[in-house]
Amino acid sequence: MLKFDEQLFQKTKGQIGELFEEGIQQLGGYEEEEKIFGRLIPLEQILLNKTDASNVIFQEIKQHWGKMDLFTQEMFRSSNIELQNVQKKLDAFFSSPSSKKTVFEHALIKNVFNFSHFVEIVFGKKTDYSKSITKLNEIYLYKIGKKYFIHILYNHKIDFWRYLYAKKIYSVFLQAPLHTIQNPIDLIQQYKQFIQSFMTQNQLITTMNHFIQKIDYKNPRSHLLKEFHLLNISLHFMGGKRHYKKINKLIAEVIRTWEAGEWALTEKEQTLLSYILAIDGAKHSDTEKTIAHGKYLITNDRLINHSIELLIDYGEILPNIKPEPESLVKRYDQNYLEQIFYIVIDALVKNEQYYDVLQLMKEYEIASCTSIYEFLNAKDFDRDLLLKIEAAVQRNIAYVVDQSHQHVKQSIEKWMQEYHHVDSPFHSIAQMTSKHVCNLLKTLFATEQFDLFEQLMSIFMKYLILQEDFMDLRDFVAGFVQKETSQKE
User: Quick one: which of 104, 375, 433, 478 has the most CB atoms within 10 Å?
Assistant: First the structure.
């Protein structure tokens, strides 16, 4: 156990809270002017030279995983390791002069060393089993300048060790220059992960916001600072009403700061911000904002092209259930691409930009569904393709109800009986689909695509009609006809 960790554990008896903060103060900790996450631990108590860091890690794993006992035996068995010669291999590994270096280098590359890593190094076998039921849980390792930041997570009083790790990360960021910290994005994400179990969501976002602002204040402009600001925006976007209100201000600051220069916003980052702004525009019925940012995402397939990177870096923001371009009946807010087309089409219809919607329907399956897309792009009028739309919707409903296409008739009957009821699992699907189909119907009527309008209207009346949407559609048609008539006169 590291000396500082052992002293703090003894003083606090493994408790967090005020006793924890007092313990840090007694061991040389101090407070920043702004109270963000309590007292700081001096870097000299956290960082080790390479030799000491390597020795500490090696001794810990040797002490806890280097001997066969009831606990390690169960762990090796769960890792599918034959138990017969395990102790011999362990002894050979720990007596090898090169093993200490191997462990240290592996830990530094991964920034963490757990039991699965140990098994891979000693036995040359990859395993998904990483849980440790010994006293040692796992070890974290990061390079900070010329020294090394180690934290050992123990299973006994694990909340204490998790809280201490968060405190150490906090202390590192507010004392070490940002450019000297290995994988700082990963490290601050770990900070967020570890503190969130000790805070409400509101406290978490407030703490992260102040923390990132403080890091910004202490460091010169860099690519890393920009990444931190984008992380802050994503946290506010996913937060409650109070934090969400700050989204536009935070984005405006980021755009102003990173609009040009060496670390100017990349297209991926602009795509992230446009996605957030498009969703915000839809939420506040700002059609111009929704259309502008939605079209930015759709044009040149920006959202599609950057989706994998965005899902890796900001997975919580983008709803990423597999898209279903063949389906018309679905929740449009469960996939980021379907969601964008849904809100953009709604905004365009409200702005009476019907030909823009029709163009999207002709260019993208996901704007409506595969069968409608195929009909619109047929060289000549094809009645079979028109009739195919209803069959596709029927199969679609069957899959929603029964997750199969085997019992279409029975599934449709169940759908018809239940989708109107607010407490039905189908109601939210019906609501979104009904609204989207009505927008498509308005577009088809306004752009004189009457064959498709009649077919889709028939499907709407049979399977999807919700009274509020039907009344809105009826008023639209009546108003549109009246407006056209008056213009001709």
Answer: 433
